[in-house]
Amino acid sequence: MVIASGYAFASLGPFISGIALVAMLVFALAGLAVLLYLADLPGRIAAGRGHPQAAAVRVAGWLGLPTGVLWVLAMVWAYAGSTARGDSNRQLNELEAAVTRLENSHAGGRA
């Protein structure tokens, strides 16, 4: 049985080890960046949709990242609680109607 003591690219061993180390670091940093992006995603969605509790959704997203369950709930909360725009439109219409009534009553008292 003959055991080869070397191979053709034996001198490249340290260089290839360095490339592998750099590749592992790049992939680790990319994975960390993806995790940070995902942790902040529910809060950014809630803020973009005008959610009244966007800060709480952001905290739930960060706290839920290790388990995943709270993160999913934060995503649902980011989309479900953004009905504030409809409520704001309804309130604005009610205020406009009240102002119109006041203007009409004021104009009626002058005439």
Can you describe this structure?
This is Inner membrane protein YiaW. It comes from Botrimarina colliarenosi. Keywords: Membrane, Transmembrane, Transmembrane helix. It holds the Pfam family DUF3302. By secondary structure, the chain is an all-alpha fold. The chain has one domain. The protein is 77% helix and 0% strand. It contains four helices and no strands. Helix 2 packs antiparallel against helix 3. It starts with 12 loop residues before the first helix and ends with a helix. The mean pLDDT is 84.
The geometry reads as: rod-shaped
Low-confidence segments, given as residue ranges, are none
Rounded to the nearest angstrom, the distance between the terminal CA atoms is: 119 Å
Tell me the total number of β-strands: 0
Structural class: mainly alpha
Estimate the strand proportion.
under 5%
How many domain units?
Answer: 1
The secondary-structure element order is HHHH
Q: Report mean pLDDT, rounded to a whole number.
A: 84
Taking the sheet with the most strands, its summary is:
none
Number of helices: 4
CA gyration radius, whole angstroms:
30 Å
Helix % is over 70%
Keywords:
about 110 residues, mainly alpha, about 75% helix, rod-shaped, UCP028770, transmembrane helix, membrane
Can you lay out the helices and strands and say which pair or pack?
Blueprint: H1 13-48, H2 54-64, H3 69-80, H4 84-110
Helix pairs in contact: 1-2, 1-3, 2-3
